[in-house]
Specification:
Blueprint (H helix, E strand, L loop, with lengths): L3 E6 L8 H7 L2 E2 L6 E2 L5 E4 L4 H8 L7 E5 L2 E2 L2 E2 L12 E2 H22 L6 H18 L10 H18 L7 H18 L3 E5 L7 H11 L4 E4 L3 E7 L2 E2 L7 H4 L23 E4 L7 E9 L11 H7 L1 E14 L2 E8 L10 H12 L10 E7 L8 E2 L4 H5 L1 E4 L5
Parallel strand pairs: 1-4, 1-5, 5-9, 9-10, 12-16
Antiparallel strand pairs: 2-3, 6-7, 7-8, 10-19, 11-17, 13-14, 14-15, 15-16, 17-18
Helix pairs in contact: 2-6, 3-4, 4-5, 5-6
């Protein structure tokens, strides 16, 4: 049976809250097949780099599935090649290309070294191969005749330059670099069935998707087209006087003059979530819409028209997510109080968690972590939660899947 590994960039500049989220909600949706998570198959890296990620990816075995949670952008992954490397980016067109070139060079050299050299004619054939190879690496590297020893020396200098370009340091930089190349080749040989990226938006760039897929040698790469946020646990507070609050009641705000719900459309009683315009931002959404009728209008002696006129629609749970700086977010939530009490109605929070985050969650009350896709440019849905259909629709695949 193919293995699975969740690898998280746990550095402060990475996704330090992702581990806590997946421990609380051990499920990640995927257009191919949802991924069930566990502590045994999770690695949280504090020295994240291509070097350390490779070690974890190799643990899944042939045909396995890897989920990698790390920042990325449309030119590559935001991680160094070696731990502590000054360049924090593994760029498709530079770092990955250098590694690919070095891997091919090692393969070509292995074939040359395997040539027989017992006779003068055999040595000449080997030297000719070395000359063509070295000039292929860098035109004009070899002029005139050389020996096999000189060819090896020239190739060694090439490897040293590769190691330096990939930010390997120290007297054993070349050996460390060659070890990384061997592990990349080993990983490609496993032919992972899927590599799922999160906390990035490279799904929006088909060329980068295909380049990353080929680099890791996986059959399929999946990644979101929007960035992902992970937040430490939040505790929903109770709104006192909920029925008097225009923002949550579904009545026009005096300052903004519109009801919560999709822009340009009237609120509907059968809509269970929608956008709320807050005074400072537009990143508050309402969930679990309910209706209420004042007691004085509930008498059977009153006409039906009065009943309809008195109905109020409101959200019993609201959630706000804000981006406070690059890759940094904060959130807070509000829930209606339990009937006749001042305490939160945890049943409603449970319904929210199971409806929008994780079906079948064992959550019963209290604080809970949060994750989702950050989509502020989508007017009606500034963030998307894991159990929403928009979440899966926002994850692209390489190679593309025909509709």
């Amino acid at each position: 049976m193919a293995g699975f590994r969740l690898i998280i960039d746990g550095r402060p500049e990475g996704l330090p809250h992702a581990d806590g989220y997946y421990r609380f909600f051990p499920l990640e949706p995927s257009p191919v097949e949802d991924m069930s998570l566990s502590n045994k198959t999770t690695a949280v890296l504090t020295n994240t780099s291509l070097d350390t990620v490779l070690n974890e990816m190799l643990k899944v075995g042939a045909g396995g599935v890897v989920m990698l949670v790390c920042h990325a952008f449309q030119q590559g992954l935001l991680m160094p090649i070696v731990p502590g490397g000054p360049n924090q980016r593994l760029i498709v067109g530079t770092g990955m290309a250098i590694i690919d070139k070095a891997i091919k060079a090692e393969s070509d050299v292995a074939a040359i070294r395997a040539l027989p050299t017992s006779t003068a004619e055999q040595q000449k054939t080997a030297i000719d191969r070395w000359t063509r190879f070295l000039n292929g690496l860098q035109p004009g590297m070899v002029t005139g005749s050389i020996t096999i020893k000189e060819a090896e020396t020239a190739y060694g200098k090439f490897l040293d330059n590769v190691a330096k370009g990939l930010e390997f340091q120290g007297p054993k930089a070349r050996d460390a670099m060659l070890d990384l190349l061997r592990r990349v080749v080993q990983l490609r040989g496993l032919k992972l069935s899927r590599l799922e990226l999160r906390a990035c938006n490279i799904g929006d760039d088909d060329k980068t998707m295909e380049a990353v897929r080929k680099f890791f040698g996986c059959e399929r790469l999946l990644a979101p087209i929007f960035g992902t946020f992970y937040l430490s646990p939040i505790l929903a507070f109770t709104l006192q006087g909920l029925s008097d609050n225009d923002e949550f009641m579904g009545r026009p705000r005096r300052s903004r003059g519109r009801v919560p719900g999709p822009v340009g459309r009237a609120a509907r009683d059968d809509v269970s979530s929608g956008l709320i315009i807050a005074q400072s931002n537009h990143t508050t959404r309402g969930f679990l819409r309910e209706t209420s009728v004042p007691v004085e209008f509930q008498s059977r002696r009153l006409s039906p028209s009065l009943h309809l006129g008195a109905v109020s629609s409101f959200y019993t749970f609201t959630l706000t997510v804000d981006e406070i700086s690059a890759f940094k977010y904060r959130a807070w939530a509000a829930v209606a109080p339990a009937k006749g009490k001042r305490t939160p109605d945890w049943t409603k929070v449970q319904n929210f968690v199971r409806g929008w985050i994780m079906p079948g969650s064992s959550y019963t009350g209290g604080a809970f972590p949060l994750a989702g896709l950050w989509t502020p440019d989508i007017q009606d849905q500034p963030f998307v939660l894991p159990n929403e259909t928009s979440y899966l629709r926002s994850i692209n695949q390489a190679p593309p899947v025909n509709p």
